[in-house]
Every structure is written in C-alpha cells, then in structure tokens.
Specification:
The protein has helices at residues 17-29, 42-49, 78-87, 105-114, 126-143, and strands spanning 10-13, 36-39, 66-69, 96-100, 118-121. By secondary structure, the chain is an alpha/beta fold. It has a single domain (10-143), classed as Response regulator (Rossmann fold, 3-Layer(aba) Sandwich). Strands 2-1-3-4-5 form a five-stranded parallel β-sheet. Helix 4 (105-114) links the parallel strand 4 (96-100) and strand 5 (118-121). Helix 1 packs across helix 5 (126-143) and helix 3 packs parallel to helix 4 (105-114). The two termini are 21 Å apart.
Length: 149
C-alpha cells in the first residue's frame, strides 16, 4: 500500500466555531499535515468551490480533495449544498463526508441518495473525535485513491 504523496486540501463546512476548532485539533492530534480550510455555511462552501467572492484566488483556495460537511448550517444547509455539489460535473468527484450531530434516519438516507461518500455522527467526546479522525484520515489519505484536483 502506497501513501498518497500529493497534498490534499480538507475543506470543513461547519457553522459552529467550537466544532471547527475541535475537528482541527483532532486532526492535528493525529499529526495530519494537510492544509485545512474552513467555511461557515453552505453559501460560503459553494463560493469556495466555485472561487467566487472572497475565494477568487485559486492559488490561495485550491479545490479540496475532501469535504467534511455539517448538515445544519445557516443560509444554505449542508443538504442543499451537497445537492448542488453532486449535480455539478466538476465538483461531484470530490468526496463529501457528512460530519454532523444529526442521527436522523431521514438525513442518513437522503444524504446517501444525494451522493455523500460517508455519514458520520459527531462523537460526543474529544477522545472519540480523535479516534474518528484517525480512521477517517487513514482511509481517505492512505487507503483509497482520490481523483486529482
């Protein structure tokens, strides 16, 4: 098994500042050196992906190799953003992992129907979040082959 040598940008879409910090800390705890970018709602997520608004600089805001998506966000929620991402021929190849507090069966079924790669309920403890991030990063950055951005 070969490790993926190219740098993969992780784009995290979550409106909760504390959750963003905890995910970032959990990734750092796993010694992940990938560049991490944050957006706070679905509108910002799509602006980032389309290099619009404050995200026009493609060098500063490159296409991510993985999106961690919260479902419950203001302006445009994760479900709406996911639908737009997966209906865009250039964006649909980006793996999207839902990382949310929701455990609703309807959300799980709907997001898989829309094309999400994985659905993960946010763990309640930091230690559990570190474990989830360890597994997630091992899977996405060491095991699977991702398309080139």
């Amino acid at each position: 098994m070969t490790s993926n040598k190219r740098t993969i940008i992780i784009l995290i879409a979550d409106d909760d500042a504390e959750d963003r910090m905890l995910v970032k800390d959990a990734l750092e705890e796993n010694r992940l050196t990938n560049q991490i970018e944050f957006v706070e709602n679905g509108e910002e997520l799509l602006d980032y992906l389309h290099n619009r608004g404050k995200y026009t600089d493609k060098a500063k805001y490159p296409t991510p190799g993985l999106i961690l998506l919260d479902l419950n966000m203001p302006k445009k929620d994760g479900r709406e953003a996911l639908k737009e991402i997966k209906s865009d021929e250039h964006l649909r190849v980006i793996p999207v992992v839902v990382l949310t507090t929701s455990k609703a069966e309807e959300d799980i079924l709907r997001t898989y129907d829309l094309g999400v790669s994985s659905f993960i309920a946010k763990p309640v403890t930091f230690a559990a979040l570190v474990d989830v991030m360890k597994t997630l990063t091992k899977y996405w950055f060491e095991i699977v082959e991702l398309p080139k951005a």
